[in-house]
Amino acid sequence: MLEVIGAYDGLAIRSATRADRDVIAAATRLRVIARAGIGVDNIDVAAASTRGIVVMNTPFGNSITTAEHALALLFGIARRLGDANSSTQAGKWEKERFMGIELHGKTLGVIGCGNIGALVAERALGLRMKVIAHDPFLSLERAIALGVEKVELHELLARADAITLHTPLTDKTRHLLDAETLAKTRPGVLIVNAARGELVDEAALRAALDSGHVAGAGFDVFSTEPARENVLFGARNFIATPHLGASTVEAQEKVALQVAEQISDYLLTGTVVNALNLPAMSADEATRLAPFVALAERLGLFVTQLANDGPEAIEITFQGEVSRLNTRPITAAALTGIMRPLLPDVNMVSAPAVLKDKGIPFTESRLDAPAAYESLLHVGVLSRGSWRRVTGTVVAGAPRIVRVKDMALEAAFRPVMLYVNNSDSPGFIGALGVILGEAQINIATFHLGRQGTGEEAVAIVGVDQVVPDEVQERIRQLPQVREVTVLRF
After folding, report:
1. Would the pLDDT of 149 be above 90?
2. Average of per-residue pLDDT values in the chain
3. Strand 362-367 relative to strand 313-320: parallel, antiparallel, unpaired?
């Protein structure tokens, strides 16, 4: 069974059976991990994020197989197949002992009506069961389309003849079925769990099975796996399987193809699908977002190089059309640019994790207010008690700086740029040109912004050569100059 695929520098692919913290730490060239199947329990996502590794899974390739397995467990306990099989193979013929029930006409309660839960509901309806579902994210329109009745949990517990679990494990869903909630179920209820073992208090369920209140249970998952022993083992009309939900030939072929396609798309086009630690982007989205991702990273680099120190707080604001896009990749790119001067190996995956780890306050907002440009991205960094802010946009697919220190200008990015903060007075531009000319530094672009005549101004000069320290010092000696910084992109 293929579990993990790692792509190294986009050149090779290897498979493994585990990607824990030690493996991740040792794989210095690892760039992406993809897990075939919905579970990623054996992958340390936090460790991968810190090292800039994209972690993907394939949550849909085994959905049908898992749904079918849940129904197989339901059939098994409805007809007491586990106990009947053991009895028959022991040479007994106990037809009277193993009286079952029909599923036709019974009410199935589906807890968690997402991808797999919806597939179970669809198949249960084909068995002419009535399906009720509890899921806080299930809309009334979606419920109607599925042909299920949306209900609250207490109503599902009271009405369902059988209950099947298909919800993620969270703090709110852990032990969703415990002694208290099991007591609220109908006498003789059947319970199936093919999602996560810790959704059910196993000791409480064993007591309910022993008392007969729960007539049968089928589990494919357990709180501790591998489940060498469990309090449920040996209970009457209990069927256990060793996490076989995804274990069919068809499902393994699907997830193998899907995981290979996801890695291929990531390496060839940058498309991110089903990632656990990076915003998802389709190929179409990637094309549309690419100019803004590039803009965001460069604005982050720009403002941090001006700050010349680590960020104490960060703010990012989207204005106009860009605010209506999938902004998470853009934010990740801006954070990458902000941190790269201090952490050269940071990338879009690791940047948010590093920010969180360092406890740096971060604010993201959106504005619909009209502006001179269709879309604006504002990036600010607090450093040494003062804010540095820059605004950019995309013009004809290319990133542009359009505002610095609240002064309007429009400048293209270049590999090397000279930033000068000065007072607006005659002779400054000529003096700056003379100094650069004498140093044989060619000016490629020159953009000016100012608050008003004779007030504060900025000059952003694209140059073809690196500006040596001694040349920078000569510029600082000009009477109009307040600040000089060489920016690299």
Report:
1. yes
2. 85
3. parallel
Whether the Cβ atoms of residue 178 and residue 213 lie closer than 8 Å to each other:
no
Domain edges within the chain: 4-61+248-269, 63-240, 280-404, 413-489
pLDDT digits (tens, 9 = 90+) for 251-277: 888 888 888 887 887 777 666 766 766
What pTM was computed for the model?
A: 0.57
Whether 444 and 453 have beta carbons less than 8 Å apart is answered as no
Q: Tell me, yes or no, if the two domains 63-240 and 413-489 fold the same way.
A: no
Write out the E strands in 207-320.
Answer: 214-219, 238-240, 313-320
Please identify, in words, the CATH class of the domain defined by 4-61+248-269.
alpha beta
Burial class (CB within 10 angstroms; exposed 0-12, middle 13-18, buried 19+) of 247: middle
DSSP state of 226: S
C-alpha 483/C-alpha 418 separation (Å) is: 11
Cα angle at 313 between 310 and 314, to 5 degrees? 100
E-only strand ranges, 324-455 = 362-367, 375-383, 386-395, 398-404, 407-412, 416-423, 443-450
Fold type of domain 280-404: 60s Ribosomal Protein L30; Chain: A; (3.30.1330)
Contact by Cβ (8 Å): 405, 464: no
Residue 90's Cβ-count burial label (10 Å; 0-12, 13-18, 19+) is: exposed
Domain 63-240 CATH (choose: 3.40.50.720, 3.90.25.10, 3.40.190.10, 3.40.50.11810): 3.40.50.720
Nearest to 398 by CA among 489, 280, 480: 489
Which own/partner pairs from 236-240 qualify as long-range (CB within 8 Å, at least 24 positions apart)? 236/83, 236/209, 236/210, 237/77, 237/80, 237/82, 237/83, 237/209, 238/77, 238/82, 238/209, 239/73, 239/76, 239/77, 239/81, 239/82
pLDDT tens-digit map of 39-94: 545 567 667 766 667 777 776 678 899 999 999 999 999 999 999 999 999 999 99
Helices (H), ranges, 308-440: 328-339, 350-358, 428-438
The residues annotated with a catalytic role in the active site are 196, 225, 243
Cβ of 398: how many Cβ atoms within 10 Å? 12
Here the tokens at position 392 are 């950019």
How far is Cα of residue 79 from the mean position of the Cα atoms in its chain?
Answer: 42
Helix ranges (H only) for 270-383 are: 283-307, 328-339, 350-358
d(CA 96, CA 94): 6
Architecture category of domain 413-489 in CATH: 2-Layer Sandwich (3.30)
Handedness of CA 129, 134, 137, 140 (dihedral sign): positive
